[in-house]
Amino acid sequence: MTGRVVCGATQWKPYCENSFLKFQGTLVSFKFAIKYIHTADCNSVTQLRLPLRIVLQCIGPHPYTSKMLSAEDIRSYHEDGYLFKRGFFTPVESKLLLDKSRSDKLMQESAVRRDDNEGRTTKLTVWNHPTDDLYGMFSRNERLVNAVEQLLGGEVYHYHSKIMLKEPKVGGAWEWHQDYGYWYKNGCLYPLMTSAMIAIDRATKENGCLEVLKGSHHVGRINHSTTGGQVGADMQRVEAAITRHELVHCELNQGDVFFLHCNTLHRSAANLSDYPRWSYIIAYNAARNDPLWEHHHASYTPLKKVASDAVLNWRDDVNGSDRSE
User: Fold this and answer.
1) Which one of 22, 118, 199, 322 has the largest count of C-beta atoms within 10 Å of its C-beta?
2) What pTM was estimated for this model as a whole?
3) Model confidence band, residue 137 (pLDDT cutoffs 50, 70, 90)
4) Is the pLDDT at 54 greater than 50, yes or no?
5) Helices marked H in the chain — which ranges?
6) Which CA distances in Å does 118 have to 95, 115, 238?
7) Backbone angles phi, psi at 176, to 5 degrees
8) 3-state secondary structure of 103
């Protein structure tokens, strides 16, 4: 089906079903618009419904549906050890993730505590295998997975996902560490791994955003040991790296994605602000880097991608909401 929808009246003209439409400055999928445009008394974006009075105009394919990352993006990632992609997910998609996580009592109740050296607490919910819930529509989304495959140079699989909850005033700090400092011990032979952090809430210096040492992945893997309630990198080497590498505060808006090399040194300060900082962090491993032994995170499992507009087309009552551990 092709067409153009204007104020509840359907005026058909040809354009691609996979196009995105402009809704109050936001991109939504054409299929989404057609499916819900005629729903009576609909005025809630968060319920995935569009007001009939809104003019929808086709503006072409979503900017990330064809080629996810440029050659410069890939070069920058490998040189700096990280990559910002601003507005990777649209405001409507971001609002869905925010609403889902805020209302997800199961996720919140299953969170485990991680205390910092001053007794403040960050909570984490972790799972290994994505399903058909909304979180899976993000972690399996071809827009995101294709980008990760560009960064890692081939097929990837879902290593694990976690939602990190840093609450106002009490959210704890994370000590300096490398993700590969943990994952190496899980049997992953090569640092062919990356994390994609999606900002659920806006991340700022005030609410304890991520901090990285630019280019520190070139140092290589550093030994890690337990510090308080966390496992951190050898501070003698961290302190040396701090004198040689630029400190970058990774402030993010909702819908931004931050790709992090597994050997990049990073930390975050406590959240002493009045605002929460929740993040959805998806770890991917290269298929050719299957762990040498079984451990508490996933071994190679083929990742079934979903379409770029899967988040917008997801329905709680149809797709379900259970995560796989």
Assistant:
1) 199
2) 0.81
3) very high
4) no
5) 30-36, 71-80, 91-103, 105-109, 134-139, 142-152, 179-183, 235-244, 310-313, 316-319
6) 33, 8, 20
7) -60, 130
8) helix
For the record, the structure tokens of 206 come out as: 């005030």
To the nearest whole percent, how much of the chain has pLDDT over 90?
62
Per-residue burial over 66-101, b = 16 or more CB atoms within 10 Å of its CB, e = otherwise: eebbeeebbebbeebbbbbbeebbbbbbbbbbbebb
Show the tokens assigned to 322. 């259970």
**Quick one: how many helices (H) and strands (E) in the chain?**
10, 18
Nearest CA-CA partner of 161 in 178, 181, 144: 144
Which 8-state DSSP code applies to residue 296? S
Phi, psi angles (nearest 5°) of residue 139: -70, -25
Residue owning tokens 């994505």: 130
Say which residue the tokens 């809630």 belong to: 44
Instruction: Specify which residues 164 forms β-bridges with.
Output: 124, 279
**Token pair belonging to 109:** 């109740």
Q: What percent of the residues of the chain are helix, what percent strand, and what percent coil, each to the nearest 5? A: 25, 30, 45
Per-residue CA distances from 207 to 75, 173, 211, 274 (Å): 30, 10, 12, 8
Phi and psi, residue 255, nearest 5°: 95, -15
